Amino acid sequence: MSEMIRVALCDDHAVVRSGLGRIVADDPGLEVVGEAGSAEEAVAVARSERPDVFVMDLGLPGTSGIEATRQVVDVSPDTAVLVLTVHDDVAYLRKAFEAGARGYLVKDAADVELVLAIRQVAAGEEYVHPRLGAALLSPAAAGRVVGPGGELSEREQDVLRLVALGHTNAEIASELYVSVRTVETHRAHVQQKLNIKARADLVRIAREHGLLEGDDELSP
Q: Helix, strand, coil proportions of the chain in percent (round to 5)?
């Protein structure tokens, strides 16, 4: 990597890109080498410019910033993606890092933390907004299941675990001493909050949050 850190920006609002560009340009060790307003444009910039750091918004029109991150890393593996978003949520942070991001910064802190975050990910390190980093590492966070639609209740997590283990709604109702209709309602809330429907995805989420530890009956 050259001494000057080459930065690309992706946000669907031109005024936001302009503001970010000014913050970057004010640092003599950083330069903006490309801008994008969509995932498709971001991939094109990554392919042509190979920036050291790509500052990526999650709320893009059409293809999401999560998928854009994945595609940028695919076409330019040496580019460190720094997510800059309004989503102050551990669930989004996990998704971003799963897609290949190396940093996650909340927009309301961009004016004071952006340059630091850019330099850190450009150096090969990870950067996580301090407030989210603390939540991610806390014991409570390990057991919490939080999706784009909110945090699952304790009973919803019970239903998620049993669904992941392959139980039918009737079996879950018997296990939890509730009606089948209640199970159906909880299951619908789980799918809505996590924004997923396929059982394979429910199994993955349950496993990632340690809900299946000690259970040997998980079906393929």
A: 55, 15, 30
Residue matched to tokens 């000690």? 214
Which of 81, 35, 75, 77 lies closest to 54 in space, CA to CA?
A: 81
The stretch 52-77 carries a mean pLDDT of 94
- Pair (121, 16) in one structural domain: yes
Confidence of residue 10 (pLDDT cuts 50, 70, 90): very high
Q: Do residue 23 and residue 123 come from a single domain?
A: yes
User: Taking all residues of the chain, what is their mean pLDDT, rounded to a whole number?
Assistant: 87
- Going by C-alpha positions, the residue among 144, 110, 150, 140 that lies closest to residue 127 is 110
Report the Cα–Cα distance between both ends of the chain, in Å, rounded.
Answer: 45
Contact call for residues 166 and 219 (beta carbons, < 8 A): yes
Domain interval for residue 79: 5-137
Full 3-state SS string of 162-188? HHHCCCCHHHHHHHHCCCHHHHHHHHH
pTM (predicted TM-score): 0.63
Q: Tell me, what's the pLDDT at 155?
A: 87
Measured CA to CA, the distance from residue 155 to residue 114 in angstroms comes to 39
